[in-house]
Amino acid sequence: MIEVLNGGTRATIQDAGRPGYRHLGIPQSGAADKLCFALANWMAGNRWDAPAIECALGGLHLRFNEPTTIALAGAEMWAQINGQNVKNFSAMRVEKGDILTLSFARDGCRAYIAIAGGLKIAEFMGSASTYLPAEFGGFEGRALRTGDTLAISNRPREAPRKIPQGYTPRLSRHIVLRARSAAEWETLDKPSQRHLFVSPFHASAATDRMGSRLRGDRIKTAKNLSMTSSPLLPGTLQVPPDGQPILMLVDGHCTGGYPRALQIIRADLWLLGQIAPGSQVSFRRCFTEQPPQILQARNSFYGGLIDGFAF
User: Fold this and answer.
1) Which of 131, 150, 153, 217 could form a disulfide linkage to 195, CB 3.0–4.6 angstroms apart?
2) Domain range enclosing 20
3) C-alpha to C-alpha distance for 252 and 310, rounded to whole angstroms
4) Is the four-CA dihedral 106, 164, 29, 138 of positive or negative sign?
């Protein structure tokens, strides 16, 4: 068993998500940073999609009531076991009674704790992922809090692994996202189209797993633009009437009524999970032929390391 001594800012149980229900208004959810989540499970010897703990912004304290192996990956949070610093993006042994603490996030937003064998979590609609807005999945459909206990699963596992050189992603407080123009791109005036790719934005305090409201140059659309609700995906950048864009994240709505200016390419969606309040966010333009090539290269690179993984 694992005992939660402090739930931190917000910690939830996540896996690879529940695809196939967007037509019912249910997003895929799952780990906000799919890459770091997969690396944590791989280091712990698990399948890449085994349920793990996602900790946003830090503050999580866990006590392990039996010996096991864990792995950490994602945001840098000054992790310690019994007061001794432990290295991020690594697997480590913990003994009965050991306490893991995560401080505040210095670089990035979310860290992942994978336990050898994974966590024993009941699935809802084929997934153990927590979807907080609807209060289902994960641990009672909510964030972890003091006093909760988690059971370790006996799923098949392999020996702990070490990430080879060159595979550890670099995280910072400046998130650079490659994007293509989206459906309503042409409704933006020319200065606004330019601002999106040359001026950085900052993630406001209104940033969570659903989306991030950005602050920066005002983005203007054609006057009297009227839209019906249209499909949204993680990585869609919407422009509301106040001109301050909203970037949809992993738990974002399935439809929306604001103009869609940009769509983040699939190979960069994992970075959305590392956007914290105050993070600087910049967009770099991709053209039609580039995203498939980028995705193929990224899938080949990490899929060659993590069996079955793809962005």
Assistant:
1) 217
2) 2-150
3) 21
4) negative
CA 71 to chain centre: 17
Query: Pairing between strand 107-115 and 68-76?
Result: antiparallel
Q: Is 90 helix (H, G, I), strand (E, B) or coil?
A: strand
pTM of this prediction?
0.95
Q: Is 7 left (phi over 0), alpha (psi -120 to 50) or beta?
A: alpha
Give the number of C-alpha atoms closer than 13 A to the C-alpha of residue 140, restricted to the C-beta side. Answer: 8
Is residue 141 one of the residues assigned to a domain?
A: yes
Condensed to tens digits (0 to 9), the pLDDT of residues 185-237 reads 999 999 999 999 999 999 999 999 999 999 998 999 877 677 888 999 999 99
Number of domains in the chain: 2
The continuous run of DSSP H or E covering 101 comes out as: strand 99-101
| Residue 112 maps to a domain | yes
